[in-house]
Every structure is written in C-alpha cells, then in structure tokens.
Amino acid sequence: MLLVGNGTLITRDAADSCIKDGCVAIDGAVVAETGPTGEIRAKHPGARFLDARGGIIMPGFINAHMHYYSAFSRGFAGKGPAGTNFVEVLERLWWRLDKALTLDDVYLSAKVCMIDCIKNGTTTVLDHHASPHAVRGSLFRIADAARETGVRSCLCYEVSDRDGEAVMREGIAENAEFIRSAARDKNDLLAGTFGLHASMTLSDATLEACAEAAPAQCGYHVHVAEGVQDEEDSLKKYGKRVVERFSDFGTLGGRSIAVHCVHVDHSEREILKETGTAVVFNPESNMGNAVGCAPALEMYGAGILTGLGTDGFVSDMPQSLKMANALLKHNARRPDAAFAEVTGMLFRNNAGIAERYFRLPLGRIAPGYSADVIVCDYLPPTELTGVNIDGHILYGTGGRCVTTTVARGRVLMEDRRLAEADEAETFAKAADASKKVWERF
Fold first, then answer.
1. Would you place residue 14 in the very low, low, confident or very high pLDDT band (cuts 50, 70, 90)?
2. Of 232, 252, 369, 407, which sits most exposed with the smallest number of CB within 10 A?
3. Could you give all domains of the chain from N- to C-terminal order, each with its CATH number?
4. Global pTM?
C-alpha cells in the first residue's frame, strides 16, 4: 500500500471534492480510498507515505496529442531559410528532421520527452510518430522508453505518401503490428491507434489500404485541416472537404482522434459530432505555425469531445492550458470566454479521450481509478476549494511546480528527484545523438 497525503486533495470526482488535509491510498495500480490524512494513515500503519508538505494532491495530467520524436528539434537553428507558411515549415523542418532519425534516436527522443512529462506531472500521453528511414520497430522502441520511465503511452505511426509507397506500406505494417501487440499489454501502460498524417499526403488508394489493414475497432489518430492548404488540397483533388473525405473512408468514429481542426466548417463539425470523433486543440503549436485559431469553443459547445494537446512543443500541460485560455479569449474578443471550456478540455475531456484506449478509468482520484497522482508545490494566497481550483492552477501554477509524480501506482518522481529514470545519462546520450541527427539533416 502507498499513501500520498498531508496536502489539499483535489479528487476531480463527480462532487469536485476538496479535502483540506487529504490523503489517497493506492493499492497496486489503482486508487483504494481517499480521506483525511490522519484517518487513512491510521488504517494503513505499515504503508509507505509520501508527504505532500501542504501542497496540492491531484490527478496526473494527460496530453491528448504529442510528438515524442520532436525532442531533437530543440535549439536547432536549421539549414536554409525558415518556412514562411505551414507547408514550408513541414518541408523545411519536420519532414527533414524525421528522415534523419534512426531507431536509437527515436528511443532517446521519446525518453527525453517522457522524463519531461514526469517532471511536469504528465502521466498519460497520446503520441503520433514519424521516422521514414526507421519505420519498422519504431513504435516498439518508443514502448521500451515507456516501460523504463513508466509514462502511459498510446502510440501510432504516421502513414503518409510523401516518402513513397514502400515507406507507406511499412507504416501500415508498423501500426497494425503494434496495435495487436499493445492489446496484449496487461499493465495498462501501452495502447495503439492507427496513425495517419493528413489528407493532403494521403491518396485514396492509401486510405483504402489503411482501412483494409487496420485491426478492428482500433481507431485512427490523424491531423485534420491544420493548415488551410489541407482543405484546399482536398477540395481541388477530391471535391470534398477533409472531414467529409475521411468520413467516406471510415476513418472517423468513437475511437478516432482528429487533431487540430483549425479550418473545419460547420458541416464538418456536424460530421465529427455524429461520428463521435474526438478533437484535440493544440494552441501553442497553432500559434507558432501561424495556421489560425481552431473553433474550439464552438466544437466544445456543440458536444464534440474536445481535448487539449501540445503537438510536441512542450510537455507542460498547465502551460498549454494558459495558451488555450489566452488564444481563445483573444480570438473571440471576449474576456469572459474560454475559461470553463479549456479547463474542461484538460481536466475532463482528455481523460475521456484517453479512456477509449486504456482499461482503467482515468482523470480522478477515486476508488477503482488508475493511481495517477501528482503533488504540486503551491501555497494559495486566497481560499482554495473544489470549485475554484481551476483558477488557482491556471493563474498560480505551472508544470514545474510538480514535486511528486505517481503513475499506475509507480512512483516516478519524489520531491523533484526522479525515482527510476537517469535524467543526466539520458540527456547526455541525447545530446550526442542529436549532433549526428543535425549533421544528417
């Protein structure tokens, strides 16, 4: 038995409970019970106790769209002129970087990001991977990093036509093989979806091949209308908008994720809602790539399961929350907009999305839920309750306020010290490997 107590416990249960001197008891990988610290410790006198020291105890964060392979872009000055529009950014940076990755690079980049996740309190990640010159085995190497670090990961490979038919076929095979392998995972650590890049890099023949090869009910993870060029390409080539085209191929559904959706129109939003497809909003990425602001408020309000991701920019979910709140307010020109929606995306909807792929319920500290618990070093200057906790997190904390991270009952960090992963060794190896990646770029 493991106890985490002596802090303000935010359970995120149906009643939004806030226990002032609270404690959570963890039995194996699940939450056993919650209550006052003294009461829980008295019931379990021999249990290991992690002291929150008056901080906030709450569920671990979930990142609904990430690119683990992005770590080696950090600090990279590039070769040649920078992209001046979305397609140029892809062509001049990301589609050259991913070609330079080996399987060892894939592993190291993923492990760097996972260590960042732990340090920022992110315990579950839905990742989207690409390494065209190292496709086969790439998801399994990322899975190795997940096992070593303990970060729950749902993985997929980005199928695309941009590197030729042979690489496209390898991507299909990697997805199918990993999905079947992850389905046998008994530790609720790994899951798989079928990854697709975007409509503009996927022919009808490729979408048909994916539909034929995809394991039943696996769901897809795909970029949708991130740049306006994606919609323009689909209309020009196929006479359909992106969401309509994907719908015709069975890509959408209750286990699929449509990422970005910056340029979807009302008719496309209706299709997303009718099919039960989840959408992931990535504010920092959308601003950085200057593609526009997704109609996230409209999608959320229409009942589309809309979550929050970082698109590989950071592993700090509170930072993404701040960005989402500011961008949507600015775009709507309404200071009273977005707060309820963006906090709902991070603290409720991300769990709803992730639960589509994992066995244990997520996002709450309640009996039977996965024991994903973090402690945040935060002393509130005003009253903190279960009702106003989101305001405290948004305006008073950040990912680096996290001191302790527990995932599936496994202590990954305690008092800001990583319990298992060797950060210095991993980052040193990554620094050496990244130099060679930059040379190959």
1. confident
2. 232
3. 2-60+360-418 (2.30.40.10), 61-354 (3.20.20.140)
4. 0.98
